[in-house]
Amino acid sequence: MLLKPFQSALILALLTTSTLQGCDHNANLTEQQLIQRAKDFEDKGDLKTGVIELKNALQKNPNSPQARLLLGEIYLKAGMGAEAENELQKAQKLGVRQETIKPLLGEALMLMGKYDRVLAEIQPGDTTSKPNLARIYQMRGEALLRTGKLQEACNLFQQSLDTDTSNPSTYWGLAQCAVANKDMSKAKALLDTALKINDRQAKTWIFIGDLEQLNKNTQGALTAYSSALKIEPDNLEALQNRALINITLGQLDTARRDIESIRKIAPNSLLSKYTQALLAFKQNKYPEARDALQEALQIAPDHLPSLLLSSAVNYALGSYEQTANQLGKVLERTPGNAYALKLLAVTQSKLGQNKQALITLQPLNPEQSNDPQLLALVSGIYLQEQEYTKAKQLLEKAAAIDPKNAAIRTGLGVSLLASGETERALADLGSAAALDSGTGPGARDADTLLILSLIRDKQYDRALLAIAALDKKQPNNPTTYNLRGGAYLGKNDVVNARKSFEQALVIKPDFFPAAENLAQLDIQANNPAAARKRFESILSIDKNNLQAMMALAELASINKQENAYVGWLEKASKAHPEAIPPRAALTQYYLTKNQPQKALALAKEAVNANPNNPGALNLLGATQLTTNDITNAIVTFTKLTRMDEQSPDAYLHLAFAQIANKNLTDARTSLQKALQLQPNRSQTLDTLLRLNLTENKLEAALQIARQIQTLQPKSPLGFDREGDIQTAQKHFPQAIKAYEQALDKGAGSTEFIKLNRVYVLVGKNALAGQLLNAWLKQHPSDNVVRAYAAEYYIFRGQNKEAIAQYQEIQRQSPNNALVLNNLAGLYEREQDNRALATAEQALKLAPDSPAIQDTLGWILVKQGQAPRGLELLSKAVAKAPKVASFRYHHAAALVRTGDKTQARKELEQLLADTQKFPEAEAAKALLKSL
């Protein structure tokens, strides 16, 4: 076969596995008559019936060498190598000469892809005839060609021609050599010669079709494959090639007929499954394509076309981790495959690995390329990295190469949107939509982006007009109805929004975005059962739909149905072992349930299923870090940096683990590597800043804070960090200014509390109190600041004001055990009779809390219920033996219950251990009294 991007793998089809038994019209035929009938059917190209006739002959005489030999030859024509080998070996055992069998056996081994066996076993003998000698040379040459030894192969093809000029197969081999040397005219002449020798060989026409494809003569290729099929209507290779061309041309009904023929001839073959998948992919029936490809890859796990198509299908389904894994296998065997490189880069970008995506594309030399698609792809990655200048330059170059390309015009619009040039962007997107016919690759991108931009800018009526224009280009498109629903939602027209989303599902019942939008409306209408049915309907169509499973898990979580939540995540993990999100969610669930071993096991499963996936390693490392398995976390993140050397995230996460392990020097090195890869990333800079604070390198920390301010002048982060540093240096006026700037830029409760504390530190208590009141008046639901206010009033001895703050928190968030505990303590100080009941209520909510046990126990002791109080205080001290206040209360309870000896021992030990605590003077006085 002529060199192609991918060679078809072994076809394991079975024309039939049964013989016709008891058929009246065959009952009286002899063995020889049946063999002759088989030959007649073979001559007509009806290989399937020929096989049936030969099996009937073998039923009459299982030891017929002639029937076995002919059956092997027909199996060869059908492309069934294993079956042919089996029959040929039986024929040889029955007495057919080895010299007759040898070339045929070589053809069978070639069909099976066993090229090493061909080279080892199919060799000329002393008595080999010239015709067979030529065939053996040709076959060995073909085996060498398939193993990449072009020159040796071509030498053998020439040797075959020198031996016998009447072997068409020799000309096929020499034609492949001519193609490899880019001499298409010579290849055509060689195939014409083969045709003159025997114009009834389908294989010659197939080679001619392949050559016409290389010459981009699609119609000529179709004609050639059709000529092959006139000779052999059941020729799988010709059917496949013709179907593939028609799929490419969009002639899907024509392609379907050939694919149906393949399915009838070889229903369980690799070829059948692959072509079914390709047709389904072209029809956007991605689940159907995925299922067919899973069967194809079970037959031939390393079949490159199936792997490549499967990666495209998984990308379309959003299974990006599996896409990356499969493309990695493809690129191991075809490192320069442009399509695979582009798809891998897009996938990595989807996974947030933009730096790695740019590295992936380097073999294609994108900066110097004149491929507009590649330029647009790289530009899009730069756009995500917020490198707008580079993105725009590449797109302008692409537009100059292909000025009528709607996708490139769309990209320019996006880059302008990102740069804030909204009106120019909308104009460019409008132009792109006008260029976009709605039928080519990437069709509707411009329209969709224009519509999304208008919706984002709340120009809903303009968006609806743009949607109507898109509807004319692509009628009955679910995406269009989904966009229309979004526009109506923007107008608060829920009725029409719901109708639009429902129409999208009428067109495509498994269209997840519309189902998700309807589910959100159902939830807002307090109808979670209807929302659940939306996703269950998708699963009834596509039983392994990952998005639907994850949505059902989330719905179960919202409804606090833990078993259902875990169940859906486990189903998703089982159906998609390569997917990280379900295992990540399960891991987090078990961490929150304090089951670290289960969490670690799941994270390890993710790595086992995806050993080369950075996301899986990151999940494992993060889980190890959370479970305090810091040593192994460092090992995991180190492996991640080696696997993904250009990922700043990998080095940042390694730094987190090293900081946790107090390897501060190593952490600094990791952070510096991360910053070399991405110099202006605020999270990395902030981590380095906090590392400097830990090591008391305050000036270095301050420099980084101001660097963050320059990089992100609208963000409060840099100003907040400067406030922390100035506070640490006791530069309070500068700290106040920095915190005020952070608040001006949108900082929240934490930064306000920091500012207030600085005012207290400099003695401006009245101002601090005024600011607190003003903040809480403006943010009445801010219970974080309200709790701080309570602490502030306690510090100032204003217990009643503190009580008022805790009471308001309790009103907003009932049954808060900590707030009730603090209230009880304050009631007790103010001799308020609500103290005991409030403490009892807190203990019911948190019976194992030592703080609450101490509060209630002390109240009981002071109210004359010392025995029960002592019991609770003993529990509190057992759980928190280093808390001085708990120990003092326990000792006082011992005194009240008459155990002065033990009380004295405990007080002496307490005062020896701790000199300063709130009740220190009371403890000394109590000891003195004993």
From TrEMBL:
Pfam families: TPR_19, TPR_2, TPR_21. This is TPR domain protein. Residues 629-752 form the Ancillary SecYEG translocon subunit/Cell division coordinator CpoB TPR domain. InterPro entries: PEP-CTERM_TPR_PrsT, SecYEG/CpoB_TPR, TPR-like_helical_dom_sf, TPR_2, TPR_rpt. Residues 1-22 form the signal peptide. It comes from Sulfuriferula multivorans. TPR repeats lie at residues 134-167, 202-235, 270-303, 372-405, 478-511, 648-681. Keywords: Repeat, Signal, TPR repeat. PANTHER family: CELL DIVISION CYCLE 16,23,27, CELL DIVISION CYCLE PROTEIN 27 HOMOLOG. The keyword Membrane does not apply.
